[in-house]
Amino acid sequence: MPDNKSDLNYETVQIGDALGPQEFHLSKDQVRAYAKTTGMWVPRFTDDEAARKEGLPGMITPGNMSLAILSKLVTDWIGTSGAQLVRMGTTYRQPVMPDHTLTLQGFVTHKNESNHTAEMDIWLENEDGERLVIGTATVHFPR
Amino acid sequence: MAVDYDPALIGRVFETTDPVPVSAEMIAKFCAAIGETNPLHTDAERAKKGPYGGLTAPPAFAVTFRNGQHFFQHVPRYGKQGFDAGKDVEFAGPIRPGDAVTLSSHVKEIYEKTGRTGSMVFVIVRTTLTNQKGEVVAHIDHRFMNRP
Amino acid sequence: MSTTLDLHSHSEASEDSRAPLEAYLNWLKLRRAERPVDGIVLTEHRQFNQDADYRALEDKFGMLVLKASEVETDYGHVLVFGVSAAMTQRFDFANVRLPAQEVIDEVARMGGVAVPCHPGRPNVGLCEHYTKKPPLQNVVAVEVLNGGSRKGEDERSESLVQQYGYRAVGGSDSHLVSLIGLCATRFAADIRTTEDLVRELRTGAYEPVDFRPRRKPVVQAVAVEVK
């Protein structure tokens, strides 16, 4: 649920501000629901046994789903402030296995006065603190 | 030592889809799957008071188009496997229920590097999403990793 | 008067990083208490910018910024410190299959030092190559502590150091602003220039330093039945 952050604006955002950390349990059913609705109903995203036959440790989370989950970290942080997520990039470092507790984390790293934007690092890590998906996002603030 | 590829590939549009219709149901199911509860994306009534005057899809919905039946048919390959190594997305405009989105793709860049899984050739494909009014709603750079 | 440097970092010049140098330096200023680093070395992938001049930023932040490169060889990735124009003519830095032994020897002859990085990493680290090929000669140091390492990789690098008597360095390998300086190398000497760095790597006293916070165990977020 987004925060009621109507006071979040370009001036109040500080370099070093944290997004999250948000912990949640990603279930296999959730991954299957995503795979079904986005037209990705293939063995690697839906079935452990079939995924293992493809050489994977079990069914994995689609990269797009990790991207979506991380984008929600940013949009939750934006809340009702009127700012917009304008760009996001992710690198898939390791497969994200469902049935694990994932932590989403981010930090505001720099601001761009001329564009009125803030840049942030964002990532998704597993219980061992390994960053499975890393990336950056750009948020634009209205003037 | 560079990857051997035809320079004419770069920038040339190799694939465009027919317009893909976007329904309220697709957006609702997407929101449910990622746990999105923001009323701007889930409640048409409340979204009327939002910045776009109506319900819009969450930004990441833009990345769901190139799956399933609209997956790339003609991405240039350099060996085995086209792995999705990551994406860079520019969100340019909202996607609403009732929109029809056309996807158009070209190769942006090709380069080689080595990493923990071995030698890799990266093919960066840029897909531009345009709605029925001709407005660009997103650019997506897909990083495909191939094994030579 | 010791100097602590993050010897391995990637700015937006590397294709897989969007981190501006200024943001890196600002982050180090912000996090100085937990990461007391005096400067960083930019080790961009497969390239070297001879003309880049960072003195204005060095002055603004009171930090040292040195330039180096991360190249790819038949024995994995190697950090090259003390890159000269002659070196970039001798070797095509964009080549992902440079001959490692030649790189080590020629770089040394030309006044630099080549340090194999993340040796414990599969495919692009020394350890795996040493199981299939003869060990490299004239290696001075390897990067035992790398901020991007996965479980077990740095431990594998440690055993290489034990076996071959290599010196050990550390670096963050950061591609994100907020990860700069988490791993670094502490030198006993005062380092102000690339020449100082090369000299100290070859013959000075140094050790890897780890500024990463100790992890709190993550409680499994699973519903528990309350009786």
Description:
The complex is a heterotrimer of chains A (143), B (148) and C (227). Chain A is α+β, with helices and mostly antiparallel strands and 143 residues long. Chain A has a domain at 18-26 and 62-140: Hotdog Thioesterase (Thiol Ester Dehydrase, Chain A), CATH 3.10.129. Helices cover 22% and strands 35% of the residues of chain A. Chain A is built from three helices and five strands, in the order βαααββββ. Chain A has helices at residues 28-37, 48-53, 63-78; strands spanning 18-26, 84-92, 100-112, 117-125, 131-140. Chain B is mainly β. Chain B has a single domain (7-147), classed as Roll (Thiol Ester Dehydrase, Chain A). Chain B contains three helices and six strands. In chain B, a hairpin with a 5-residue loop joins strand 5 and strand 6 (136-147). By secondary structure, chain C is α/β, with parallel strands linked by helices. Chain C has one domain (3-210): Alpha-Beta Barrel (TIM Barrel). Chain C has helices spanning 21-30, 55-61, 85-90, 100-109, 126-130, 153-164, 194-203, and strands at residues 3-9, 39-45, 64-73, 76-81, 113-116, 141-146, 167-171, 183-187, 206-210. Chain C has a seven-stranded mixed β-sheet with strand order 5-4-3-2-1-8-9, with helices on both faces. The chains are: A alpha+beta (143), B mainly beta (148), C alpha/beta (227). Chains in contact: A-B, A-C, B-C. The A-B interface holds A 1-2, 24, 30, 33-34, 36-41, 63-65, 67-69, 71-72, 75-76, 82, 84-92, 135 and B 26, 29-30, 32-38, 51, 58-61, 63-64, 67-70, 84-92, 141, 143. Strand 2 of chain A pairs antiparallel with strand 3 of chain B, so a sheet runs across the interface.
Per CATH, what is the topology of the domain at 18-26 and 62-140 in chain A? Thiol Ester Dehydrase, Chain A
CATH topology of chain C: TIM Barrel
**Span between N and C termini of chain A?**
25 Å
Radius of gyration of chain C: 18 Å
Number of strands of chain C: 9
Arithmetic mean of pLDDT of chain C? 94
Tell the overall outline of chain C: globular
